[in-house]
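Question thread 4412

I'm putting together a teaching handout and wanted feedback from people who do this every day. The idea is simple: show students a protein as raw sequence, then show them the structure tokens that encode its fold, then repeat with a second protein so they can compare. Below is the first pair exactly as I plan to print it.
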Amino acid sequence: MSEHTETRLPLLSLLNNLGWDRNQIQFEPEWKVPKFPSEASKREAGQNFQGFPVDIAIFDNASNLGNYEHIQIIIETKAPNVQEGVNQLKIYMGLEPHVLLGIWSNGSNICLVYKTPEGGYSVVNNGTLPRPGESLLRSGLSKMKWRDLVDPLTSDLKKTFTRLLNVIVSQDSRSTRRDDQLNNLCNVILAKLEGDKIAKFNPEASVPFQVWDTEHETASKIRQLFQGMRIAHSDIFLTDSDNDINFDDHTISLAAYELAKFKLREASLNAVSEAFQVFRTASLKSAEGQYYTPYPVIRSVVKLMQIHPSDKVLDPACGTGGFLLESYRQLRESFPAMDDGDAKGWAQRHLFGVDKDRINVKLTKAIMLTIGDGSTHTFLGDSLRKHLWSTTFQDLQSSLIPMSFTCIVTNPPFGQNLRMSNVDAKAAGLLIARKNIKDSNGNYTFHSTKFEDRELGILFMERCHELLTYGGRLGIILPETYMFSPSYAWLRQWINERFIFRAIVNIPMEAFQGFCRAKTNFYILEKKPFENVA
């Protein structure tokens, strides 16, 4: 009782006087820190868990009270002396990964324990309680060098990316729209990649992408790295307004705190693929037919495509590059004698992607840069509207050359409500949009001049056919109705005249649950070597 009245209550009063909102402070009931990582997993799953009680917990704002992802400060008054109190805080802070500051007090003395980006601790004896808005970030006693960075585990990198997007940038004062937050977080990732490159080439110098002495200094150095990336990879930045990281200094510093310790440029392919799934999901625009393709589906269907070093691979609706990344990963796995230089050269010459969404394109380029730079031929553009290529999407005119790809793998936008107008289809030269006519024998022909509105998924079939070499393989996710409904008999005739069916792979409806309600399959088709069709 004396501890509560003599120490805890005076501390709460002092915090209140400093401006902290009582509604962002938990002390009754006491906050519990998971006793073991396994107990933390139970907490994440919403289950009961065993925990160590702490006297006071402070969260980033009142609306997040009780949310473990938003806890910032823990305060302990139980240990009999400062050294034991500091040791206890270090244990608790190691088990509570999002805490930035631990405070021990016996009522008269205050000791501050800051968690540093590399996983160490900075202890300040005889400190003072922080005010709201005061930075809780501290760098270590010495600045990190290249040798201090670690290879990220897949789970760690995915959790970090999730926290960056859902916790850190969501509270930024300058960037409030989700697509803008995603775009600017991608800019931070690109700055990190530039920082890793510089650090690797100069391993005895301090890593430029890390937490520095002030938030302003940290943000300034990271903005400088971003400008260096813009110069080195100008093709990534697709608009004139994309000339800075539009986050406040606090958000950039928190991102540096979360990312600094990782060797992001040398992360494993599995870690990169899993982590960037967080961004893929966030970038979806379901009304435009963008459906998240789960990684197990990507992995399985690309394996069926049997990517070979001689292949030139295209995804004409690449989203954030899942099929391209997995094609690269499986090629490395299938041909282990391929060294890093050979693999990088292959990616630069043999991987092509197109998407209409600029953030998707930037994310694809960022992902490919992370694994060795296959970003060269990822383009912003419309694969279907060929009539716009010469004026609006000139990169496509020089890159999407008919009969130049041996392998296309894609999950195009599809759906009854996702159609191209007959006017656009005619201008784009998409003959599959011509009105189909059924004769007395049940066969179909196409009207010579009359065009109809047509679903996008069907139009992608023609564009892919045009771009494939004879004998080239098309792997495509499409609604099951295209291949089995009587209303699409004309489409099946069109396909059989131009392709050989090599495989039909069932995709369970659960795979796209929450994104798309249509039953889909993965179809592997081979372009026929000779065609005599209208």
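The second pair follows. I'd like the answer to focus on this one:
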Amino acid sequence: MNYGYVRVGAAANELRVSDCIFNKEKIIEIIKAAEKKSVEFLAFPELCITGYTCGDLFLKDTLLRGAKEALINIAEATNNSSMISIVGLPMVINGRIYNCAAVLQNGKVLGIVPKTNLPNYNEFYEDRWFTGADQLDVDEIWIDGHIVPVGADLVFTAKDRDELAFGIEICEDLWSILPPSSFLTQGGATLLFNLSAGNELVSKGEFRRNLVKSQSSRCVAGYVYASSNSCESTTDSVFSGHLMIAENGNMLKESERFFFENKLEIADVDLDRLIYNRRILQPSRRSVISRSYRIISFDYVSLPLADEIQRRIDKNPFVPENRRERDERCEEILSIQTLGLMKRMKHTNTEKLVIGISGGLDSTLALIVSVRAIIKLGLPLSNLIAITMPGFGTTDRTFDNSINLSKQYNTDLRIIDIKDSCLQHFKDIGHNKDVHDVTYENVQARERTQILMDVANKEGALVVGTGDLSEIALGWGTYNGDHMSMYSVNSGVPKTLVRHIINWYAENEADEPIKRILLDILDTPISPELLPPSNTGEIIQKTEDILGPYEVHDFFLYYMQSYGAGPAKLLFMAERAFNGQYSNSQLKQWLKVFIKRFFSQQFKRSCMPDGPKVGNVSLSPRTDWKMPSDASAQLWLSELDNI
């Protein structure tokens, strides 16, 4: 294993129905090919040694003996290999025939798992030939002179790495009311393998895909599904060879369907992510049904990752790449933000809002949310008090956009220039106005917040906060300045998504004059505008020039909080996601900035205002993120320095 990844494979072998010798050779071909690609766990389809569609031939000694001999030959072919291979075959145990999965490694059969739920409806007649695992009356059998454990209660666990464990279920088991994989998960399995022979019907592929994704999410596991290809008999059904690898609800790899040849799909499952998410979720998912499991140990040798990781690392994980999904997410987030603000207004019996508008992204999104809330509550837009407060760094572009946008919405627009009051404050505290340091900047931010709060008191209104999730993570806000509000509608929205939400609103809800203003705001550099502009009136204080690109910081935030990734892994992932866009040294420097600021700025999050959670990453101290304000970042920085 490298950086917490485990390489798994789902395979479908070319086969001839009931020809165990031919099928054995094809299975061995795939095993050898998978070994060359550093696969560590490989699953084949249900009854792949014989074929699933043998019918009453399953009752014949010739087929059963041939299947067992083929199993022994396949096991021998895995000699000197640490890769786990899982193959399917019928096996006679105490006079009954079971539909089984056999686990192979290093020339040995490590265990046998019989199928629990046998389908016996429509085109399925498995009760005619097989016995369910609940009827098994032994817990071990002899195979090729060795005692092998057998049962549906087996959890295979890596020696010296007990969090790397896997369980097996077979086809119908996944479709049952209580899939065995749910219990195997409670027994410690982080990887789940399904050996299947699902036939194809109209729309069944989509249903099967949703089942795999759902079960991987429910179990917080990697789920590998391998189904028989089109070589199976077509007497009454057609088989497609659907191969899928899912991780915690996400499809990592999926094959085309309907093929005859050998096929192998490979993906790298993020075991660290699964373990991290289980730490969070498992206290609320304790077993309510008492079951015991037998632990079967296996040797595990971590293989180095190949040059290309076998999974996609999204460089914009907060933003769906698919246009339809992105539009749906933007609309849904706007609805969550709007409803959160409406509820706060109804609860406090408040009919007015106060918002500071700057012509920047965040205040624009907060203004849009406020407008929607006012309209949905049936209140006049004049109840929305939009205050623009030009300071020393305000440019004509942002000032004009804030004015024009507020006028288009028919808000109660107020212009309050803060320069004179800030100059007076500099004089009061003895600060040189020509020294453009943090005091110079924060005086302006706190002056603006004071105005907003005092106007809200005067009008009986709520101050709507504008800071977004990315700024909260980096502490990029003035403590008791723009850091503070009465309800922070953007607190769950990362910067990379703010742009898309505004753009969606511009395209779908805004009229043409408002749309033109919004598009210009989207084209404006991100800046707090606290330092004087250039001689030509252009913004010179650009946030991303100081901190690094927000898309990179959002990348770090997402994978650190959602996947539990540490510095080394974050850098490893970023180098691949942003390959060709940013250098490794840039990414490392920005990661160092992120870590330092994330730790040092927790005190701002500890007292942040209420705001709606909109995604799976939240830094609210009341819900998702409880961290001491004086926690040390040294371990994280040391790990990064050692790379």
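Top answer:
Good format. For the second protein you could add a caption like this: The chain has a mean pLDDT of 95. The chain is about 40% helix and 20% strand.
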